[in-house]
Amino acid sequence: MDREGKGLRVVTSRPFACGEVICDFHGRLISRDEGLEIQQNNQTQAGHLFFFTSKNGQDMCLEAHEERCECHPNKTTFGRQMKHSARRANLSPRLHFVDDEPLIVFMATRDIQTGEELRYDYGDNRRSCAGDGLDLTPS
C-alpha cells in the first residue's frame, strides 16, 4: 500500500500467528563491499540492501533493487519494501540455508492482525549505516 508522504509499505491481507513465517527477502547475493559501494553511489538501490554474516563468518549482502527476482520472475517480492521500526517491529529476520545458499525469512514476533503494517528492526544506526548487518543465528 502507498502511505502518503512515506512511500510504499507492506500490510497484511490475513492474520498471522506468532512464530509464523511471513515472507523472505529475495535478492542478488553480493559481498559486503559491493553492498557498501551501492549504498554510497546509488540512492535508488541503497534502500534495498540487507547486510548479514553468513554461516562461515563471511560478511554478505542481499541486493533487492529489482522488484522481481530471477527465481520468481512472475511475482513481486514484497520483503524488500518492509519499513524499519525499532519500537513497533512485529517481524524478526532469521537466516536459513537452502542448498547452502543463504535465505532471510521474516517471522512474526507476535500475533499480527489483518491490515497491520509489517516492520522489522534493521539493526543499524539509521544515521550512518555502515553495512554492519545483523548478527543472525542460522536456523
Written description of the protein model:
Residues 1-123 form the SET domain. InterPro entries: KMT5A, SET_dom, SET_dom_sf. GO terms for molecular function: histone H4K20 methyltransferase activity. Pfam families: SET. One of its GO terms (cellular component) is nucleus. This protein has helices at 32-41, 43-46, and strands at 2-3, 7-8, 21-25, 28-31, 49-53, 59-63, 83-84, 91-98, 101-108, 119-120. Strand 8 (91-98) and strand 9 form a beta hairpin. The protein is globular. The protein is mainly β and 139 residues long. Residues 126-131 have low confidence and may be disordered. It has one domain (10-120): SET domain (Beta-clip-like), CATH 2.170.270. Helices cover 10% and strands 31% of the residues. A three-stranded antiparallel beta sheet has the order 3-9-8, with no helix packed on it.
In brief:
This protein has a single domain (10-120), classed as SET domain (Beta-clip-like). Helix content is 10%, strand content 31%. The protein has two helices and ten strands; from the N terminus they run ββββααββββββ.
Please name the defining characteristics of this protein.
139 residues; Beta-clip-like; three-stranded antiparallel β-sheet; 2 helices; 10% helix
Question: In terms of topology, how is this protein built?
Answer:
Layout: E1 2-3, E2 7-8, E3 21-25, E4 28-31, H1 32-41, H2 43-46, E5 49-53, E6 59-63, E7 83-84, E8 91-98, E9 101-108, E10 119-120
Parallel strand pairs: 7-10
Antiparallel strand pairs: 1-2, 3-9, 4-6, 5-6, 8-9
